[in-house]
Amino acid sequence: GEYLYHVDTDQKKEIACLEMDTQNTTVQNLILAAENVEPFKKAIEHDIHKAVNAYKQVFPVDGKVPELCTTIKFFKEWFSAEHINRGLLIKEWAERLKNKPAPVKKTGPHKVIVDDVNKPERPRRSEKPTHRTINYELACGFCEELDLNNLRPAMDFAKRI
Q: What domain of life does the UniProt record list for this protein's source (predicted)?
């Protein structure tokens, strides 16, 4: 038969929670791989169960989560392999990952700070911000002749308001 076992309501709830857990990259990669590997889409539950167990043998759940492209490649190879050769395929993948050198962590792109020569420096607060000083700064916005490089006249205007 196509259906080899019964899934009860508790298992369905657990599966639904796993599907919705976007922080669990292993499950999310498995779902995305299932959508991108055609034989996986058409597989019966028994084959899906075997494929996921094979995946867990190659990529332990408590280990580093493989990239999505690696997961897809593994499932494509697993489903295209003859049934008798799948055990050998699992061993080859496990050996390949053991012998693979540790990836070099790339740092983010270096930010190059370019100072604009013509860019004026923003004025700095001279006092600790309190309700009074913040009110003065807001009132400076009403001064029509506001000069950001010379705030003294604007502050005098703000104090008069």
A: Bacteria
